[in-house]
């Protein structure tokens, strides 16, 4: 008697294996890695570590580590994740650069829209326009008057091409329709040092770095970049850019989590569920508040809302970056 062969379609085998993999995720013997495309010690690094702790707790104590893969304005780390195995163990934690690098780089080695699965936004940091202590202006009205009276003579520092301070500075110039000399530094610390010393006139940076200098009366503060005033004791009386007459001037440096394209849907759901639990963790919220950041708790925590928001940010920044003529190969 001839035996009968049982033929199982390859697609069904694949489906079964993917489902089994998703059920076992995360495996107890495998560590989840957040690739952070920046050096340790900055506000995005802190947010990544805080989220890793809270998501680990939400996933039953599963190990989550940080890999600081800095370089090329964040594109090296992002590309590392774009090319990683889509198994849920290598994730990208990055900030607004996800929306701006496509315009900064002529030959970005990955596609922001097509090479990632969007998991959700996590938090955002407001920005703050500050000036050297010897600046003659003491409020936004006086500052705008001083800028208009000194066109061609003003410089504005930043932490390097593509940095948060660079973006905010470009938007400030674009909104005022005034060209300033952009002075790039290798990081926020040297840019702040020269601002305090009076070598440069202005800087726009995250409140996590400006608040200590304002408290120490080492710089002058003019406005914040959020739609409403901040609750920070140091900045609660500081007007917004929009209150100062700069219509639609809103900049926040947001952070989000991404997986390589093709990661199984069931794995993505487990990661997104853990992220949603993490952003409601009182300890995570406390840590973000202490650093001047706000935890995101809206539709942008969902993959679809996250991706729609990032694509809107790509569209927002592209013409500003193009007009500034700042590119990298």
Automatic annotation (TrEMBL):
Keywords: Signal. It holds the Pfam family TctC. Residues 1-22 form the signal peptide. The keyword Signal applies. InterPro entries: BUG, Bug_dom1. The keyword Isomerase does not apply. PANTHER family: BLR1237 PROTEIN, TRICARBOXYLATE-BINDING PROTEIN. Belongs to the UPF0065 (bug) family. This is Tripartite tricarboxylate transporter substrate binding protein BugD.
